[in-house]
Structures are given as structure tokens and as C-alpha cells.
């Protein structure tokens, strides 16, 4: 088996499992309440890490790939030669906006789920609303997988860093979707089904991009900027606003965000040292 495929399969399975584990923390209710108070800090760490990966790793690597793809044969000079990859980056960002806020409504982290065990039977949102939101999020999770695969297929270090960035928001993502389904009056089995489906779409994104990239010759010079736009949106327009909304203007929220940035640079340095020898 191709070592890259094996690595991607492992990454995909771990990311998928994190979605399911996030949903499992809703049971029992005491566990749900215990972990919910820490989610905003985990989200802040994930946001800081993901934002750093996008700006420090994905964007420079996209430009480097574009230079190799053109092989110096383009007529544009200066900033003009990067018009297409930057448009692809913008396209990935806007695609995520359309999916999350047009195809599906946007939900705040865990806000839908504010009832206790004894009133779960009362649906606070309609099942149609919950499943419409889930459908939109499935597109998002699919692109999580595409982002992991696109990064890993061009650089082992970037691939690992992107995987960690995605993984850090997978657990809260599963928790949020599980809360949504329970707020619609659904059962534990349905929560696990939906979170497992989200995990499967991430895994599917990893596998499909690997085979499309190798069999159909889809260039990572085009795919990585799109994936970078999706990642940038998740970090800057999804996670950070969620953190600010739920964490308030507290020093701990900002500290958690900076911890995520610090974790990125620590991982960046360690991986650079390991791969350099």
C-alpha cells in the first residue's frame, strides 16, 4: 500500500472518530455539562492553530506550487501571476459562506441544547431545521477531508499540521451537531448516526481526493488554495466568532487563542527539526 494512502486513511479515521466522540459527550447529561464549559477554550485553541496553519503553511505552499505548476512560462509578472491561486483561495472562502449561511442556517456552539435530561422530549427546534443544518455541515466536513488530503499529498509536514488543525475542531463539531439533533427531540441513536455520518464524509473527502489526485491528475496547485480558503473561513469566520460569542471579552479566551498559535509554532519547529535530519 502507498505510504501516503495509509497515512491519509489513519488521519481520516481519527478525524471521523473525533466527531463521534464529540456527540458521545452528550450522554449522560452530567458529562455533557462538564465538557461544555471547556469547549470554548478548545475551540479557541483550534482557531489559533488553524489560522496559523493557513497563513504560515498553506498560503506560502500554494504560491510555491503555483510557481512550479507554471514552470516560469507565464507572461504575468509580480503580483499578477498569483491572480488565479488567490481567486481560488477567495472561491474556497466564499463557497464555505454559501454552504453555511445559504444552504443551511448557522448555529452557535451548543446553544441549541440548553435543557436538562427531564425535558429532552420537548423539541426546541424543528427536525427539518436540524437536518437542513446537518446537510450543510456535511459539505463542510467533506472539505475537511479534502484539505487534509491535499496538504498531505504535497508535503508531509504541512499535511500533519493541517490534520492537527482539523482534528482540534472535530470534537466540538460533533458536540454541536449532537446538541442540534437532541434539541430537535431525537434520540441517542440518531445523534450517533448523524455524528458518524459527519465522520464518514470527512473520511470520504480524504479518500476521494487521494484517488482523484492520483488517477485523474487533479493538480494540488488548484486544490490547495481552495482548501486554504475553506480553512481560513472555518478559523476566522466560524471558530473565532464562536469563541468571542461564548467566551466573552475575557483574558482566558484570548489566552486560549494564543495558546493555539503557540502550539502551531512549537509543532512547526519540532517537525522542521525532525524532517531536516
Can you tell me about this structure?
- This protein is mainly α and 277 residues long.
- The chain has helices spanning 3-24, 29-70, 83-103, 127-152, 156-183, 188-215, 220-247, 251-276.
- It has one domain (3-69, 78-276).
- Helices cover 80% and strands 0% of the residues.
- The radius of gyration is 19 Å and the shape is globular.
Q: Care to give the gist of this entry?
A:
The chain has one domain. It has eight helices and no strands.
Q: What's the mean pLDDT score?
A: 81
Radius of gyration: 19 Å
Helix content: over 70%
- The figure for the number of domains is 1
List descriptors.
single chain, 277 residues, mainly alpha, 8 helices, 0% strand, globular
Describe the secondary structure blueprint for this structure:
Layout: H1 3-24, H2 29-70, H3 83-103, H4 127-152, H5 156-183, H6 188-215, H7 220-247, H8 251-276
